[in-house]
Specification:
The protein has a single domain, classed as Vaccinia Virus protein VP39 (Rossmann fold, 3-Layer(aba) Sandwich). 28% of the residues lie in helices and 26% in strands. It has seven helices and nine strands. The structure holds S-adenosylmethionine (SAM). It is found in: Cytoplasm.
């Protein structure tokens, strides 16, 4: 795979494109300096197919990554990351590894990161890319709608595919004070939910803007 599918060298030209992307996201309302800093650091072009033009890799829209799946729009990645409100040392589970870009953004914090992907081809491909990049991320193949009970509880759970409803199993894998960020709704449009588990194991739900994710599959996903 080395050098065939991905371009993993960075340059001043790409850094300039990242700065422009950060300005664009700031104008669109992303306000967390930590999130913007992470977006500025992660070379998004590492995570898109090698024939993608540099301007495309840093444009604010989703891109096809094969297997009928997408790398999420940078605005969406920044929005979900901002809602997660990451703290140093958090144990975080991402559901829907896909290209690995969202995981790479999360990896900019000093955290313990787990990610799970249902598509075998994407799982293998992205696991190898993380190895090449020396990213110490725990990667799993399987149905993330069930969470990762063996490794629970998690301080943060991030779902990067649209769910028909909030999977009960994920709620029960949150630590006290933990947060689940998940798009919930119809197959093509979803509202972003942030559910916080309080110290009494009760759940407070906040509902944010409308997004359009690929469907979450698996037991608690779309059939
Ligand atoms: N986080 C990804 C990124 O940065 O590229 C976004 C990928 S895409 C929007 C959503 C991903 O969720 C797809 O790769 C899809 O295969 C995966 N997916 C869908 N249902 C899943 C499930 N039940 N468990 C794990 N992954 C799932």
């Amino acid at each position: 795979m080395r050098g065939e599918r991905y371009n993993i060298s960075d340059s001043e030209g790409y850094k300039t494109l990242r700065k422009e992307l950060v300005n664009n996201l700031t104008e669109k309302g992303i306000s967390s300096s930590e999130v913007l800093g992470a977006i500025e650091k992660v070379p998004r072009h590492f995570f898109v197919p090698i024939n993608t033009a540099p301007e495309e890799a840093y444009a604010d829209h989703a891109l096809q990554i094969g297997e009928g799946q997408t790398i999420s729009q940078p605005y969406t990645v920044a929005y979900q990351t901002q809602l997660l409100d990451i703290k140093e040392g958090n144990k975080i589970l991402e559901i829907g590894t896909g290209s690995g870009y969202q995981a790479a953004v999360l990896y900019q914090w000093p955290i313990e990161l787990y990610t799970i992907e249902l598509n075998q081809t994407l799982y293998q491909r992205t696991r190898k890319l993380f190895e090449q990049l020396n990213y110490s991320i725990h990667t799993f193949f399987g149905d993330g709608s069930l969470g990762l009970p063996t490794y629970a509880p998690f301080d943060r759970i991030l779902v990067t595919a649209g769910a028909p409803s909030v999977p009960e199993d994920l709620l029960h894998q949150l630590s006290p004070g933990g947060k689940l960020v998940i798009p919930v709704g119809q197959p093509k449009t979803q509202k972003m939910y942030r559910i916080t588990c309080n110290v009494f194991q009760q759940f407070d739900t906040e509902i944010f803007d409308l997004f359009s994710f690929v469907p979450l599959l698996g037991k608690y996903g779309w059939k």
